[in-house]
Amino acid sequence: MDLTDFLVVIKSICFQVNNPRFSKYRFFKQCVFAVAILLFGCQQGTLMATPKVAVSTLPLHSLVSIVMDGVGEPDLMMPSGQSPHHQSLLPSTVRKVTKSDLIVWVGPTHEASLTRAIRGAKQEAVVITLINEPQLIRLPVRTGDLWDMDHNHHSEDDSDGHSDKEFGDEESGHQFQADQDSGRMDGHVWLSTDNAKTIIRIVAERLRGLDRENAGVYAKNMASAYVRIDNLQLELKDQLATFDDHSYLVFHDAYQYFEAEFGLYSAGVVSMSPERSPSARSLMGLRELVEQINSERQLVCIFREPQFKSSAIDILAEGNTISAFELDPVGIGIDPGKELWFTLMKNLGNSFELCMGTQNPEAEK
Known about the structure:
4-stranded parallel sheet; 10 strands; Rossmann fold; globular; 3 domains
């Protein structure tokens, strides 16, 4: 029963009260009956309400939206166009997180700015920390040469003053115990088609536990997504099959899941911390390394990213037979929703093909 139905019952009782033959005893019984119906209706509505879901970043939000299609819409924690590494949440977003039944994020080491809000979630909330999920393919952060771990943006301590081993507090009950290797793992897990399917399955399983009434919908959405993802994987493999002997530089180390799956080779990274531009001294060292790598293995291009300044890319590309192109690991400029992840992956495939399909030094810079 909703509020409208309840008001109809009350109106009927009030109408009968005006009847002189209406007894006080009967009035009392009908009032009790109306209240009982209202309470029962509220209880049923609570039990059958769509779970409130909060998701950290655009690609993960897209994968969760696929599972929830036809049932509800998850809330996006990170504003579109913002880096997931260091971003403060709006108060309205924090309130949504604290009321969520299910929270999906990569983890505290990779999304440190979210830990405080997630610690404040209600105790019964289900929190999926993907970097701790053993079912996922998890690759270690790359080191050596242009992958120097000492300057990587995934540091041992997050901006909130916590080590990457434990996040949480005793009051909320949400302790985020990072597993032994999670702090050294690359958090861009969504850039693998196999991982995307695993994330969808994990989310569908948790949602079925929270919302048994729509379990069939979640299962159907998962099965449909698997077919689309398998088809996309085949398309991308065919598209990128001839580029296994090409090398390039990326703005920051976000693409190794995609590279590993489709046989691509990245020679290194331009910026160890994407939020900060390299210093003049770092750029000088980078230019020397680029020249060395270019002499050993011909570099085809350097990739910039839309959410970060690209001055370093332009400086490195200047004076070299290296073209500059754009890669986007999170879906900047793509409408949020269930199609974003598919569009993101197709865009990556097109960008790699555009880069490695040309040797023209006058290409876009």
